[in-house]
Predict the structure of Diguanylate phosphodiesterase.
Amino acid sequence: MGEKRLKWANVPVGHHNPLAYAVSARDQSVIQMVEEAVRHGHVMLAYQAVVPSGRQDRPAFYEGLVRVLDETGRIIPAREFIDVIETMETGRIIDCLSLEKGIRTLREHPDIRLSINMSARSIGYPRWMRTLKRGLGQDPTVGERLILEITESSAMLVPELVVNFMADLQKKGISFALDDFGAGYTSFRYLRDFYFDILKIDGQFIRGIADNPDNQVLTRALISIAEQFDMVTVAESVERPNDALFLQNIGVHCLQGYYFGAPTVQPPWLEAARVAAMA
């Protein structure tokens, strides 16, 4: 009887938890969809402004967030696959495509700075390095306008490799941002050795900070660490005006989040230029 029920539920024999099997099958389907999209280059960037505190009219730089599209052109939510493909070659190829598109954007728009996300696992990946060297060779201004973002958890996978990698590329003018700071377990010894240029404070400390004394204390501590190592601070996930004002008052250098605009595949600097021309 139990085996018959499993068959009626379209669950293979041997899988005794229909819900777990359904979740696993769905996840595998998403990964296959992502692999297919990446194989055909169905990837694009969405841009979100990072603005200086107290001066929101002129972004300090933009972050280029990778978007993977399914066969119908719809965006596949990153939360459904990003942790899994991080350890796969598909993750490396996404990093390559993201860098290719980011460099192209910098070449086409010489007045902007742009940050691109990458995994520490992509360090030494031949295609990624070729893409970067080609981009730097085609336009010597790209390096000084490119920011590479590495998450705290990714950097701690191979800290010594990241330190050497950063030192080599910083000589070419490239800046580095430590993303999601506070979400992981960075050793302060490595933080001293990394020499990141920008520290992005994880959104879990920022959302609702104006009304959360605990997060206020923690964020002040993170700002103090950044100041000690001469890093520019960016608060992520700023969603309310009172949070933005609080962060400005405690000395955060830059702010990023939906309060200043959602990520958009239409370059926001072009819209800003159009509005300015009509004024």
